[in-house]
Amino acid sequence: MNVLKWRMMRGVFVGVVAATLYGWAADATNTFDRIYLGSRPSVSADGSRFVFEWCDNIWIAPTAGGTATPLQNGNAKDVWPVLAPDGKRVAFQSNRDGGWKIFEVNLDDGRTRQLSFHSEGARPYGWTADGTALLAVIARDHDGGRSLERVALLPTAARGPEQVLFDNPATEPCLAPDGQRLLFMIGGGDLYRWRATSSQSAQIWLYDRRDQRFTCLVKRTTESRTPLWTPDGKGFYYVSGEGGCMNVRHHDLASGDERPITRYTEDAVIHPTLSHDGRTLIFRRLFDFYRMDPTRPEQPPERIVLQAGSAPSRPVSRRRYYTACWNNDEAGCVAFCDDGMQIAFTTGGDLWVMDTVLRDPKLVHGATRTHERDCVFTPDGTALYYLSDQGDGVALWRAERADAALCWWENTTFRRTVLTHDETNRRQLQISPDGTRLSWVEPCGNLVVADTNGVVVTRCRRASNAGTYAWSPDSRWLVASLADDYGNLDIWLLAADGKAADYNLSRHFNWDGYPCWSPDGKLVAFVGVRPDNQTDLFYVWLSRADEERNTFDKEREAARAAMKKGSGKKKAEDEKKKEDAAVKPVTIDFDDLHLRVRRITLKDVTPAHPFFSHDSRTLAFEATVKGVAGTYKVVLPDKLTPELLTRRRGRALQWLAKDNRLLWLSDNLPAHFDKTFAFSAYQETDLRDYQELGFLMAWAKLRDWFYDAGYHGADWPRVKAKYRDAARYAPSYSVFQRVMALLHGELNSSHLGFTTSSSSRKEWDKTAEFQSWSIVTAHLGLRFEPSDAGPGWLIRDVVPDGPADQITLKLKSGDRVLAVDG
């Protein structure tokens, strides 16, 4: 797997990333052997220490910086810590019991006890002043709208009922020193979009428990988040997006006047927390926590540099083995030579070769910093071309055997030559049938043709996306599924030398794809979706004369063939085989060609991935017919009822006449028809290289498919440099995920997200949440009146279509539930 061996000088990196744009001096050396991208700090009453989450554990550290100590170590994920007013207990959210429930740890003796038990979970935000109840956000049987979350008080001394403060969505609650007023947030977008503006941006509201009155305090098109009461209860701090960046502001309740506390111009302030005396404000900005006295905003915040007292236990590498062509994020590639007896394939992001008997893979190219993808042999099998994904670009390589006298699988070393090495992403590598040219697709859907030295000679029709494509047998044409500016894919005929006009063959407003060319060059077939979502096969005779000969004159030719007998017949058949074996120039009659396209209607069948047999008339395709999945065939032009060829499915490369051998990738294994060739390929993955590669792939994907310099306002190359090392050295999934969230936040766009594949997630995840079963709280489907004194529970309303909404129960508003389970 190898990435560009590029490293910015540490001083440059510090200058770009760590320098505050506050007008103050840059921070000290910004290395990643420290704690970075911690979350949800909670500061002690006197401001001397704070707790926070990092690597799915709760840590405690002095606010002056230094060594942080984990409160507990285990397999569970512990997050959202909140220090109690006495500084001796920490409430936190954990999945250790299945679901996200609240627990409490005693800082003196380390004992832990459970505070919440509902399987729908609860998230802590603070304590009452006397420490007897916990302020939390819960999700229960409330009317949804945009959110089911409600603010509640949870008793901490002993297990008791939750007290929902009001029946409206709310989050980020903060209880006033008097215990009667509550600040909270409603709405809001992505936390990391520090330049976001929207009519649905977060607002700050006030709720007075005494008269149950709501007051909107801050409502703007920019985000207004995380309110924190001042100790005197006369105002509050909050994070505001006014001015183009998320900064801390102070809001006076009486006058409504505001003043800035921080003045950053980039990199948002998030997760602020305030000490009881109001003199220590802790927040995170970019990678690190900062502290400041909010009553003295003229003094710059100080970065809190933390070292882990015990490093997270994670190996530097992982040994894997693969038994299928699976490239972690997609199916691997396979290529054959010598009539399918030698095989090249990619798995785990590495390139291998093997034979069909011993099946002992030999590594051609493999390193964690790159991800090998497509591979193709030259027609004579002397060279192997392949694509090597560096993350921010895909290089083209050529490999040759070190000892040409030996087979590929007998070599243990290979001569490798890089042909292109830039930041262009390439995919769908193919080689022309005559072996003189290569082709691939560049972002976003540009099909290019190159000489075998990698130099591009033709750039085909510009497209907004490209599906699959195929070469003509004479290497002069390509047939491709290309998208227009509206995303509609049509089938196009393209001259490989670019000298003939492009031709739209399908010309339909719906999707068309999977084009393929018959070995004799006379037919093109593809799949298309038509009205009522009916998916069918389509084919066309490229020459009008061939269409007439094979359709209208077929019976006459069959009668003539029947007249040939004995040796004369055999001689004619031999001559026919020689004629078919010779590569003839493809003839295309473009006049009204799109009108000659024939449709094969397959009711209740969805065909995919069609390919031709060596006879150029048998068209096979993947489908499920009458409940039976497999590969089916029809014979053009008249045997059009699908016939099961094999119950296997796959991606065909070539259907040879020799032994009627189909070379394909089936069930992610190289195969000859129903015979698959299993293997075991072993690999050692450097986890830091792997993470850096993953980050670069995501960065490049956004660059090629989403980023617009004129719209998003981000310097995308600078953004890569800013976050690259943070991703590389991320010690846990949660930290890596925050790096990706910061990356997305630079674009100031909605509907962006990052998730890992299940196989990659194993590199990070703890095991507690993967228990075979967990306790789930049963919901009656009843909502009760919280202010009713009893007896039992007074039904406020019945949840429509819930468990209790049954005619036989006859439950309604005003009824009382006196007992459950007895």
Q: How would you describe this protein?
A:
With 822 residues, this protein is mainly beta. The chain folds into four domains: 32-308, 6 Propeller (Neuraminidase); 319-608, 7 Propeller (Methylamine Dehydrogenase, Chain H), CATH 2.130.10; 687-770; 778-822, no CATH class. Helices cover 12% and strands 39% of the residues. The protein contains nine helices and 58 strands. Strands 1-2-3-4-25 form a five-stranded mixed beta sheet, with no helix packed on it. A four-stranded antiparallel beta sheet has the order 5-6-7-8, with no helix packed on it. A hairpin with a 4-residue loop joins strand 37 (446-451) and strand 38 (456-459). The two termini are 63 Å apart.
Question: What attributes does this structure have?
Answer:
single chain, 822 residues, mainly beta, Neuraminidase, Methylamine Dehydrogenase, Chain H, four-stranded antiparallel β-sheet, 9 helices, disordered N terminus
